[in-house]
Specification:
Blueprint (H helix, E strand, L loop, with lengths): L3 H17 L7 H29 L21 E7 L10 H6 L3 E4 L2 E4 L2 H6 L3 E6 H5 L4 H13 L6 E2 L2 E2 H12 L29 E7 L7 H6 L3 E2 L4 E2 L3 H6 L3 E6 H5 L4 H13 L5 E3 L2 E2 L1 H11 L6 H4 L11 E2 L3
Parallel strand pairs: 11-13
Antiparallel strand pairs: 1-4, 2-3, 5-6, 7-10, 8-9, 11-12
């Protein structure tokens, strides 16, 4: 189906097409006039399109909306980033320079830096995909669809280029919307946890931990004498004390880190479950809600149970589910 902007262009160009039919073969002047009129029609169509969406959305025409409103969008937030040593004038440091820089480590012919400061300090180029860069990658059809969702307040039944509006918005919204999980698809959605009671969620509880000894590279004797186990190739430490004793870096993955990646659809599903006092018949990403909340909930809720476990579960035994977040 043609977009509204395409239809407007075709309608605007009708007089031009009629005029072009009057041109005789070899009439260069006539052909030039027709070409100029066509280009003018295309420019006018784009201008009309921008004017239309500037009126309908607070974002204006140049930016595809994904958040509940324009003020909620975080344009300079980094969605992902990495340190590049092979382009943009970057210089690959030697192994010693790389490993001497805090936050970087490497070997012969390679270097990896976790953050911007360390990357720049050793001669790398920090490439970051910002939220603005991400939404600028959307196609024109997707932008028009999202402007429509913004103006109507719903993403229901909206699709462009084979993708649903809610699916397009879901990932960037986790990084780029200050009020996430609220988005253009559900502007009033409030944050949830996988627990029956939000205050039971233990944000700073460690889900798992490990010891990074790559930079320290302790000898086999040092490793084993400090309460860790290893050989000439590696050193494994079960405790933070042992890890620090051999010069390693103790890394922990905490509950809040997993919670920040919980999608809008899961937040919506939990909200529905609490309101209907059951997780039955609630599907997220074509699977029962329990699949998205039970593991995190049992690990991070002080009760040891997710919201679905607390409500009695059972949603996975049903064959028909109500999709959340669509």
């Amino acid at each position: 189906m043609a977009s509204r902007s395409t239809l407007r262009f075709l309608l605007a160009a009708l007089p031009v097409f009629e005029a072009s039919e009057l041109c005789h073969a070899g009439d260069a002047a006539c052909a030039a006039r027709s070409s100029a009129l066509l280009q003018h029609g295309a420019r006018q169509s784009r201008a009309d399109d921008e004017s239309l969406y500037a009126d309908e959305s607070l974002y204006g025409a140049g930016m595809a909306p994904i958040c509940k409103d324009a003020a909620d969008f975080l344009p300079e937030r980094e969605m992902w980033a990495y340190c590049d040593f092979y382009g943009h004038g970057a210089v690959l440091p030697d192994e010693t320079t790389c490993n001497d820089q805090e936050g970087c480590y490497g070997g012969t012919g390679w270097c990896h830096c976790e953050g911007r400061e360390g990357c720049l300090a050793v001669g790398g180029y920090w490439f970051a995909q910002t939220c603005t860069m991400e939404v600028e990658m959307f196609s024109q059809e997707q932008r028009e669809m999202l402007h429509m969702a913004d103006s109507t307040g719903s993403c229901l039944d909206l699709e462009a280029n084979g993708m649903k509006a809610a699916d397009i918005v879901s990932w960037p919204a986790t990084k780029c919307c200050a009020s996430f999980p609220a988005t253009i698809c559900d502007k009033d959605l409030t944050p949830q946890t996988p627990c029956m009671h939000d205050e039971d969620f233990e944000h700073n509880k460690s889900m798992w931990a490990w010891c990074d000894t790559y930079e320290a590279a302790p000898s086999e004797h040092e490793c084993n004498s400090k309460g860790c186990e290893g050989n000439e190739w590696h050193c494994h430490c079960e405790t933070k004390e042992g890890c620090l004793a051999v010069g390693g870096r103790w890394e922990e993955y905490q509950c809040w880190q997993d919670l920040q990646y919980m999608s809008t659809e899961v937040h919506k599903g939990i909200s529905i479950a609490k309101s209907q006092h059951s997780c039955d018949d609630i599907a997220v990403w074509h699977s029962p809600l329990e699949y998205s909340v039970d593991w995190l909930g049992s690990s991070c809720c002080s009760s040891g149970q997710s919201v679905c476990q607390a409500l009695g579960g059972g949603g996975h035994s049903h064959h028909h589910h109500t999709a959340a977040g669509r």
